[in-house]
Design brief:
The chain is built from four helices and eight strands; from the N terminus they run E-H-E-E-E-H-E-E-E-E-H-H. It has 158 residues and is of the alpha+beta class. The protein has one domain (2-156). Strands 1, 2, 3 and 4 form a four-stranded antiparallel beta sheet that branches. This is DUF402 domain-containing protein.
């Protein structure tokens, strides 16, 4: 079993632009990079890894996971990476046959799952992220980016 989770930053002095600007008037780039920072976690069976820094752009991470699935879904043996901005950290994804192995460059974690499980977990993550953020900041649901994330979630969950 694999699960991706995200949570918005929790601090007394939040840095996300969602606390200062209306989401509906933001550009795609602003929404991807400056709105909704938080943390992500990956659980594979009983192993769990998480960032715990409050600086991962959740919408960007969501779309990146969908792109990573697309990359891994094309070829039998291939690699993809998610690069964290302003650091050398990354999460490596390696597909070998029908198995995907996930290994961040920091922390003691490695997990593997079937490609079909990986796809479903990403779809659920995209759905959960946009629903959770939309529940707190409803104007984000008016954006083309939210529609794109929702469409990708639906596609991945088929």
């Amino acid at each position: 079993m694999i699960e991706f989770r995200g949570r918005l930053e929790e601090r007394p002095d939040p840095v996300g632009w969602e606390h200062r600007r209306d989401c509906a008037s933001a550009t795609r780039g602003e929404l991807l990079w400056y709105f909704f920072p938080g943390d992500v976690s990956i659980r594979v069976d009983s192993n769990c890894w998480e960032t715990n820094l409050g600086w991962v752009p959740l919408l960007h991470f969501s779309l990146s996971l969908a792109d990573i699935y697309t990359t891994l879904g094309v070829a039998g043996d291939t690699d993809a990476k998610y690069y964290f901005t302003e650091s050398d950290a990354e999460i490596r994804f390696h597909r070998s046959g029908e198995m995907v192995t996930i290994s961040p460059s920091f922390g003691d974690f490695q997990g593997s799952c079937r490609l079909s499980e990986f796809r479903q977990a990403i779809g659920r993550f995209l759905y959960d992220v946009i629903e959770d953020i939309g529940a707190r900041f409803s104007s984000v649901l008016e954006t083309p980016l939210a529609a794109e994330i929702s469409e990708k979630a639906e596609f991945l969950l088929r």
